[in-house]
Specification:
With about 325 residues, the chain is an alpha+beta fold. The protein is about 15% helix and about 30% strand. The protein contains 5 helices and 14 strands.
Amino acid sequence: MRRVVVVVVALIIGVVTAAVAVAASPGADVRLTNDAPGAGGYTSDYTLVTGQPYTDATLSECSQSRGRQNEPADVIDPRNSQVIVGSSNDYCGVYNASSGGIPQATGPIWLGYYRSENGGTSFQSSLVPGYPGDTSPYAARAQIRTASAGDPVLAWDNQGRLFAGSESSDDPAGSKKTFGDEWVASYVNPGGTTGATSNDGKEFARSVTVAKGSSAPNLLGNFNDKTAIEADRTNSVCQGDVYFSWSRYSGNGGNSIYFSRSTNHGADVLESAEPRPEQCRASEPGHRRDWQWTRVRGVPSNRGRQEERGRRGHDHQVDRLRQDVQRAKGGRDLHAV
């Protein structure tokens, strides 16, 4: 009798294990960047939302360039897991002009926007509006001043809004200035917060500059980099707030972590480095916002030798946040923006 029970149990375990293995099997790889002829090309976000045709030299080049991308990011909509948005430093538009039939590397490196509404089975490729040469109706919504953008970080809130943070540098005038700005783009559901969730994070609403570098040449002066972003999805008075962090490199080794917050879904320049306790005290016991970063010591420090990463947290106890950061950084590096 015991032998029969053991055999039956073994068979059950085998069936369960096989079912789990099938459920966990990955699907086929899917291209997010449709930058080859016949792959679908790049489409303006204006067209994705309105159906009205628009294109330009950069989107046309992106649709055939087979260009490179790096530093990718992607996030799944918490309201609808079929909606996935990815991004990268996208080089697809670099050769968007030619002289005497010879392609010229005068186009932008820019933040990509790659969207799936079928759980990642396929993606539509686009760029965040506001790139050089963008004359779509959405271009004017980008309140930025640079000719390149990258280092994407992405976050959803729980009302269908998507936020994309970027480090951006090049001077549109073509000088050697490296602006070192930080900005955050906001995407909304064109039907509002109660619209069909398949349209979450689809319409570009704005890009807002959060911090400006000193525009010195060759990454000198104040240069902002190392981005991190998160939106508050807790059931608290802080729900929907957007938190953005970055490192400022001062050219002389005096590097600092900066922290900023928006209380209106990224509509304004993100305010105040220290959240106000009266507005964001935790609504439930045990909730707090934590920061983590890595510091590399004992080496000569210019821009790239010290890595400091702000990471997101959740609803928080503000006094704990302030004390932890000031204690870890000597009380000097939590700055107002």
